[in-house]
Amino acid sequence: MKKNLIIIFLILLTLTATGMFIKNTIENYSLDKPVKIYPVKPIVDDNNSTSTKNVTANADVAASAQKEGNKPTYTNNSKDTKQNDKNSKETNAQVVNYQFPTKTPVRAKRSSDKYSVKVHIDTQKVEIYKNDTLIKIMECSTGLTEGDYDTPVGNFKINDYFGESFYNAKYGEGARYWVGFIGATYLFHSLPVDSNGHIIEDEAAKLGTPASHGCIRLIPNDAFWFYENIPTGTNVEIGD
Fold it and tell me: I need a labelling partner for 236 at 20 to 30 A (CA). Which of 13, 109, 147, 178 fits?
């Protein structure tokens, strides 16, 4: 009997000590201490390319094309669109639409119609012909005349490199609706955008003057139209 009482006493003593240890541990851990929360960096899916070939484009401000998952509508950040238009060299006095179409572009396919493209560096204009009839004139920006960024002059063909968007961290610029005419290096594409997909206002204001790294820049609606209507194999003539 005495032995059993001793055993019970030791068990109670052990339980008491354990309880005190747990109590002290809880009291010493303050939930009021600040918790450092680290912001989550957005992940860019570099594998979701819209190009028909797996290439790295050494293009005007860009390289590898990547398709945006939710296809947001990008607009420029200007509070005064009219001021932007005033700064740009518009010859037709129309308000330039710096808003990207909400529609998902569908790449042009070959048809019985014969298209051709003429780029005039001296006037910074792109002419579109359909069955030898001029149907559209678009203002553009070709390559800078200094720094070895000239747009190549000569006769080319629209190739099968294309994509909905790209971004090049090296230049801090990208663009949408791009179509190649010399590999994936020289392209027709929209006005430059930043990493958030917003049109870079300073670059947009240069429309109508040589401003690119060799590619041919167009306003969003024209770039979208070009992407959807000018198929692979179309002749491209670039000159003065």
Answer: 147
Element (H, E) at 204: helix 201-204
**Torsion, Cα of 180, 182, 185, 187 (10° steps):** -40
Strands (E) located in 132-203: 133-139, 154-157, 162-168, 173-182, 186-190
Nearest to 187 by CA among 45, 47, 5, 55: 55
pLDDT tens digit string along 93-151? 344 557 899 999 999 999 999 999 999 999 999 999 999 999 999 999 999 988 889 99
Which residue in this structure is represented by tokens 């012909």?
A: 129
Active site residues: 189, 215
User: Where do we find the tokens 């300073």?
Assistant: 202
Residues 218 and 226 sit within 8 Å (Cβ to Cβ): yes
pLDDT score of 235: 98
Q: Give how far Cα 231 sits from Cα of 133, 159, 176, 201, Å.
A: 17, 8, 17, 30
- Please give the class, per CATH, of domain 81-239: mainly beta
For the record, the structure tokens of 221 come out as 């609606």
- pLDDT (tens digit per residue) in 69-80: 333 333 344 334
Q: How many CB atoms lie within 10 A of CB 82?
A: 9
Neighbours of 87 (CB within 10 A): 15
Cα separation, 139 vs 32, whole angstroms? 61
> Which residue type occupies 6?
I
Ranges of the chain with pLDDT below 70: 1-10, 12-97
Cβ proximity of 200 and 190 under 8 Å:
no
